[in-house]
Predict the structure.
Amino acid sequence: MAVPGVAGSGSLGRELLLGSADVTDDSHADAAADFIEATRSSYDTIAPAYSAEHPDGLGDGPLETALLTAFADLARAAAPGAPVADVGSGPGYVTARLNALGIQAFGIDISPHMVALAREAHPRLRFEVGSMTSLDVPDATLGGIIALYSTIHIPDPELPGVFTEFHRALRPGGHVLLAFQASEGEHIHMTERYGLDISLDYYFRTPAEVAGFLAGAGLSLDAQVRVEPRGEQRLGRAFALAHRPSASG
């Protein structure tokens, strides 16, 4: 995705682990209807600076590498040869890593500027402008969906619809891997990054809350991983793996 969470250029969200923004309540809820456009515009603004600073924001941590490899293995086993969507693909490094693992992955991001930079960095791979709220794919065609730090831009009232859209797009047996900052009911509104004006909202949730949203959309939870804050990080991270059940259960 690119971004917004709307798909969201998920990569950017990782920096909030350090937490330099103001924490607010849901006083911005009245602007929820505009969150897609606000997210798109904000990521378009910061795309060059972020991509230059973080050409591969996933890092080489053994946990992240293991989870990505496990997701690729599960997607391949459940639907051999089926495409996998990297939703909130940002600069494209997760899409590239999945392809290196033998997965036919393509990126979706809300930000046209971010998509252009991903295409420039990875010219042989496919990147599209789009939103996770309405994926431009036929029903039951994806072998997997990965959304790393991109659903954090989706307001709570919109998240059930996003996960229902994931369920629609997945083949039976197809998997979803999510990553997100873990916190209870925390909403952050950012107005500046890299010295540039933006308007970007982040919604942090507990693993239990995310699991509930997944279950409500008909997706079965397989595993959760919680990573505690490291160094100067303010928030921990969480990963959730789920799948669309087959007709036989």
Helices lie at 10-13, 35-53, 62-78, 93-100, 112-121, 159-169, 207-216. The first helix runs from residue 10 to 13. The CA atoms of residues 4 and 112 lie 11 Å apart.
